[in-house]
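Researcher: We plan to redesign the surface later, but first we want a full-length starting point. Tokens attached.
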């Protein structure tokens, strides 16, 4: 029994990030290219909406700003925003978190009692988590003036979870703020969007290079749409097709369709779509929307992927 406890303690210690490692989560939000967005979010701190949505940008930027927003309400050592840009602007009274104090570290490391994170990057956000949250929201914050609840990549909410969350938002709490991140606001229920204020990060350059995972799957998609072969053997591998990967594939396809529709042949995949008749682009969009809705219900992700890709394959003209 003692050895089991020791093993658990050792594992817990391994999972605790050092201050230097934890604070790296703020790096993307503090990058020079995000100065304007950081100023907007710092200004909102003075009169925050109960719910803030952050869309656009990269996944890294969205996650970073969710932590930044939480820290801005929990940090006890706030400093003038102008210090972060190196400008001496006496007219700007906006404050920002110091990102160096113990509270900012605890937020970054997910160790602060008043900073709650629900991560939808790898799996769905379950309804039981939202039921537990409802109980928590009824309590006062333990240490900070405000509790901040962050739903990272909130498009992973199941329908049940989203409806439970709506009930929480219908009864505003004076001491609890919410922040959701999502690639595009359209991926969330309209009733959730209407409950909050949306801030949009600069959209990524559509001509940017794909990362290694995206390149691998783009190659598979190109081969499949050309020959109808090779893809299902890959998607059927146990544990390969999770919600995050499926969303990645849908974004690759959406981007290539957008390029083809605008006449830009940026990559082999967009070249496949250029001969689609106009009505087929609308059908392709409907197929992707249906797949996204199915993913919210959290049915089998492999089945969703294979059905989506088969329907898209059937849109292509055959010689």
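Model: Full-length starting sequence:
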């Amino acid at each position: 029994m003692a050895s089991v406890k020791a093993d658990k303690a050792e594992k817990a210690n391994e999972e605790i990030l050092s201050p230097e490692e934890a604070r790296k989560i703020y790096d993307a939000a503090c990058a020079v290219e995000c100065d304007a967005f950081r100023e907007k979010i710092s200004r909102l701190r003075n009169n925050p909406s109960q719910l803030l949505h952050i869309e656009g940008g990269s996944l890294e930027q969205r996650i970073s700003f969710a932590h930044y927003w939480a820290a801005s309400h929990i940090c006890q050592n706030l400093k003038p925003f102008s210090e972060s840009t190196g400008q001496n602007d006496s007219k700007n009274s906006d404050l920002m978190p110091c990102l160096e104090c113990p509270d900012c570290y605890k937020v970054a490391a997910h160790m602060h009692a008043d900073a709650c994170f629900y991560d939808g990057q790898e799996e769905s956000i379950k309804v039981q988590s939202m039921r537990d949250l409802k109980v928590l929201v009824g309590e006062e914050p333990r240490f900070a003036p405000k509790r901040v609840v962050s739903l990272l990549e909130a498009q992973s909410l199941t329908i049940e979870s989203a409806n439970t969350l709506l009930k929480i938002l219908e009864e505003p709490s004076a001491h609890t703020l919410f922040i959701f991140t999502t690639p595009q606001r359209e991926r969330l229920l309209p009733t959730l969007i209407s409950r909050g204020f949306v801030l949009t990060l600069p959209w990524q350059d559509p001509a940017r290079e794909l990362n290694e995972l995206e390149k691998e799957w783009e190659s598979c998609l190109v081969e499949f749409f050309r020959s109808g072969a090779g893809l299902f053997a890959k998607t059927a591998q146990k544990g390969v097709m999770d919600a995050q990967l499926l969303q990645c594939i849908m974004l690759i396809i959406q981007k290539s369709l957008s390029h083809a529709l605008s006449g830009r042949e940026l990559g082999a995949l967009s070249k496949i779509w250029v001969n689609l008749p106009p009505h087929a682009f609308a059908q392709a969009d409907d197929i992707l929307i249906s797949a996204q809705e199915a993913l919210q219900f959290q049915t089998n992700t492999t089945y969703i992927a294979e059905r989506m890709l088969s329907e898209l394959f059937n849109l292509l003209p055959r010689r």
